[in-house]
């Protein structure tokens, strides 16, 4: 069990349409003014990280998309403590360009940038930008080499790699990033995703799931990581609907699903399920998602952070007890709900964490 306090990240809405594929009103905006203010609110509310999204074309709505590395830098420039995770895809990015970009941003922002290495699920997007579409496990083999290259460039001089996808010869990056190496996140649920996390990533992000589902994934991941002598932390996605009463929160969920855009949800579902099933064992993200689950495109309802602040805080502490280190939160009305979360939910989480520590200490004494 993790001894530290659980960390919080929020999804940066840098693509249009919010985080649910529904016609319900979403008081959010993908533009920079809204996002700068949101980052400042999140930092004041006690969030540790912001996660940007990488997207080159529309797929389920998401008609407009700001580029993630540039956008992350703007959010870092507008804050002082928040860490911002820039999402990138091997393919369009090469490790040489990304290592350099991130090293510079790290210097510009006092060492607060991180990266999310996204392996890709959306074939239409790759076709649109003229990138070859590798088969599922090949995408992960490439991502692993990408991460190995990034770490090598960031931490050593005279870096040499003769890989299947990337080659470096006696390369020394100057300046190196301020942080020893900026944290490396990755997403995915498939066997290949977990195996990569158990070997090279600092953080493993998974789609929303029940506590039991998350536990099964974490047990599997951590057993493999231990065998590899590798340390990896875990973040879980959740769509948070915190309201003063449970009825209000449940009513909001019902409205989101009632007003779901079936065409867009089904178009996303077709692409996502193809991606989920295309991993050899068929356990990729979305392989088991229902229509309702897909309305939040990373299965965020399944985590069930929907209810009163007290209910949500208790569920977060239950997630922590099975090995979750970070909750990645999405919201309907970002600015107002991030503020509410910081004021009402976070203090309860800290209180429950304190009580657990005190109970443990008393049991030992
Ligand atoms: C928290 C999280 C964030 C993700 N962010 C992005 C993103 O910004 N862009 C993208 O194309 N895919 C994103 N993905 C998709 C994953 O990188 C991966 O392609 C997908 O989960 C399918 O993986 P699997 O088949 O291994 O389960 C994200 C996944 C998770 C869990």
Could you please describe the fold and organization of this structure?
InterPro entries: DMSO2_SphG, Luciferase-like_dom, Luciferase-like_sf, SsuD_RutA_monooxygenase. GO terms for molecular function: alkanesulfonate monooxygenase activity. Residues 8-325 form the Luciferase-like domain. Keywords: Flavoprotein, FMN, Monooxygenase, Oxidoreductase. The chain is of the alpha/beta class and 365 residues long. The protein has 12 helices and 12 strands. The strands form 3 sheets. Strands 1-2-3-4-7-8-9-12 form an 8-stranded parallel barrel, surrounded by 4 helices. Helix 11 (309-321) crosses helix 12 (334-364). The longest helix is centred in the C-terminal third of the chain and has 31 residues, at 334-364. Flavin mononucleotide (FMN) binds next to helix 6, strand 8 and helix 9. Flavin mononucleotide binds at residues 53-55, 87, 118-122, 187-190, 192-193, 205-207, 237, 275-276, 279, 284-285, 298, 328.
The helical percent reads 40-55%
Under CATH at level 1, the class stands as Alpha Beta
CATH fold name, please? TIM Barrel
Tell me the overall shape.
globular
- Strand portion: 5-15%
Which compounds are bound in this model? flavin mononucleotide
Family: Belongs to the SsuD family.
Pfam family, one: Bac_luciferase
GO molecular function: alkanesulfonate monooxygenase activity
Domain Luciferase-like: 8-325
């Amino acid at each position: 069990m993790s001894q530290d306090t659980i960390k919080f990240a929020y999804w940066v809405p840098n693509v249009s349409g919010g985080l649910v594929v529904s016609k319900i009103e979403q008081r959010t905006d993908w533009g920079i003014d809204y996002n700068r203010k949101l980052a400042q609110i999140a930092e004041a509310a006690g969030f540790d990280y912001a996660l940007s999204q990488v997207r080159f074309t529309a797929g389920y709505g998401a008609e407009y998309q700001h580029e993630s590395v540039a956008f992350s830098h703007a959010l870092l420039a507008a804050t002082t403590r928040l860490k911002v995770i820039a999402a990138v895809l091997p393919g369009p990015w090469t490790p040489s360009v990304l290592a350099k970009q991130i090293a510079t941003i790290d210097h510009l922002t006092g060492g607060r940038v991180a990266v999310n290495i996204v392996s890709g699920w959306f074939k239409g997007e790759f076709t649109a930008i003229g990138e070859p579409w590798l088969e599922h496990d090949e995408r992960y083999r490439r991502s692993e080499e990408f991460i190995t290259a990034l770490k090598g460039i960031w931490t050593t001089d005279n870096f040499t790699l003769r890989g299947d996808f990337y080659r470096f010869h006696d390369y020394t990056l100057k300046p190196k990033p301020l942080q020893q190496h900026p944290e490396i996140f990755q997403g995915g649920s498939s066997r290949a995703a977990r195996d990569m996390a158990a070997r090279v990533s600092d953080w493993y992000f998974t789609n929303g799931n029940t506590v039991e589902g998350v536990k099964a994934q974490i047990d599997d991941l951590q057993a493999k990581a231990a065998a590899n002598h590798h340390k990896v932390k875990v973040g879980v996605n959740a769509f948070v609907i915190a309201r003063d009463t449970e009825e209000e929160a449940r009513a909001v969920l019902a409205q989101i699903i009632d007003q779901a855009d079936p065409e867009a949800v089904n178009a996303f579902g077709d692409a996502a399920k193809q991606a989920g099933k295309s991993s050899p064992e068929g356990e990729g993200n979305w392989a088991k998602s229902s229509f309702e689950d897909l309305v939040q495109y990373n299965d965020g309802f399944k985590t069930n952070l929907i209810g009163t602040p007290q209910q949500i805080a208790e569920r977060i502490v239950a997630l922590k007890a099975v090995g979750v280190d970070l909750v990645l939160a999405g919201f309907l009305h970002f600015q107002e709900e991030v503020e509410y979360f910081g004021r009402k939910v976070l203090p309860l989480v800290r209180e429950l964490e304190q009580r657990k520590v005190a109970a443990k200490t008393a049991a030992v004494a």
